[in-house]
Amino acid sequence: MAKILIIDDDDDFRAASTAILEAAGHTVFSASDGKVGLEMVKAQDPDLIILDIMMDSIYEGFSVITTLRATPEYMDYRDIPVLMCSAVKQITGERFNIPAEARIAKGDEYLDKPFSSQELLGKVDKLLAE
Amino acid sequence: MAPRPQAHILCIDDDEIARESAQALLSRWGYRVSLASSGQAGLELIDMDPPDLALVDLQMPGLNGLQVLEQVSGSHPDIILIMVTGHATLRKAVEAMKQGAYDFISKPFPPDELRLAVERGLERRRLILETKALREEKARMEANFMTLVSHQMRSPLAAVRQLLEVPASQARGPLPPAYRDFITRAVTRLDLLMQSINAWLAMSRLDEEGINERKIDVSFSQIIKDLVRRVEEEVRLAGQTLEVQAPEQDCTLEVDLESLREALYNLASNAVKYNRPQGRLLISGRILDQQVEVAVSDQGPGIPEKEQAYIFNEFYRSKSREVKSKPGIGLGLSIARRVIKAHGGDILVRSQPGQGATFTAVLPR
Description:
The complex is a heterodimer. Chain A is α/β, with parallel strands linked by helices. Helix content of chain A is 42%, strand content 18%. Chain A has a five-stranded parallel sheet, sandwiched between helices. In chain A, strand 3, helix 3 and strand 4 form a beta-alpha-beta unit. The longest helix of chain A is centred in the first third of the chain and has 13 residues, at 11-23. The relative contact order of chain A is 0.17. The model of chain A is unreliable at 90-96 (pLDDT under 50). In chain B, 52% of the residues lie in helices and 18% in strands. Chain B has helices at 16-28, 39-48, 65-75, 90-98, 111-168, 177-205, 208-213, 220-237, 257-274, 305-308, 321-324, 332-342, and strands spanning 8-12, 32-36, 53-57, 80-85, 103-106, 216-219, 241-245, 252-255, 280-287, 291-297, 346-351, 357-364. The longest helix of chain B is centred in the middle third of the chain and has 58 residues, at 111-168.
């Protein structure tokens, strides 16, 4: 079973996702903003990150992923797969001018909120298998 | 009642006597008056200090009245223009009216006639401005309302739905049967409500102008790939199979990617919804000379011919048992068709009862 880090500013989403993932046997850590989330990446070295794109602002989610993917400080963690999610339907690069590093890269997945436990566990299993 | 701001009237006439007599009358009636002795001078004044109404002599050397009319109705369409004609040339006056002048009067005009024409013209101006202000106000309110709905309502609803997912999926152990039905019902109602809100938001974003503004160049095969990627999980969860016939070549289309994705997804997700159990979903893309086609076929019960004319209507849902048993609000197809039509295309439906249905979105290249 895997170590999963959830970065989401919504308490209810964190609680619900944590319950579903723990029930499936995963160990879950969570952070309510990008800064704490990035610190936890180093502290816990998770197998997978579930990242809410639209936290305080859309840029907060993107800055987490750009930091993770493109700074030397996070060199050792840049291959951790990320499951991005958002309640804003269909976040796409075209509309929000997403920095290239933050686009849904090979090995990443995207999920619209709210998601069913099947959808969540399906994506998680897929990312962990890769 | 607060005094109304003084109306501003511009008189464009090459005849000095005509200008001065108009000025004398109009100022006496309480209007602010500007004078211009040629069409060119008149246009300059209109740019610097736009009047509410202009009296324009038809017969002038240089830029004549009709030419002034043409320019002003292009640049300042809400300025009221009254044409003044010296020789009672009715034909020209009629032509001016056709081109957008509000009224005309013949020289020499009795003061009453001028007064009446000006008063009526200013009343018209007031109505035009009022309508414009109301329309702007309405657009502002709609925009605010949309923001309210999308941010203040959708996020908390999504959170509620996510919380309900824990008992609904029985993640923490089986739910006592006495509660199960209630959780399931709550989830169903909430899902429908969220679908309505999403569909309704999508619908209100769909004006052709907006779609044209957002158009970008996109590769056709990428559009098909996106669609497949988005629907494959749904197909798998429904226990169906997916077959994709991608176009052999590729081409670039100018589209509003977001709304087009939504439209094609609506077609594909409908096909999954109404497919027979273990049925096959076929997504195929074709490039023709003038157009491209994206076809989505299912193996469901099909659509009776007499219903095919109505399925694109907003909120239309078939009375058939197969459709009524599935959740839905009857907006998916109408949204899809609106989007495709705004792109200059159309959606065609082909179906034989009992043999599935094929929806084909046709887009110009």
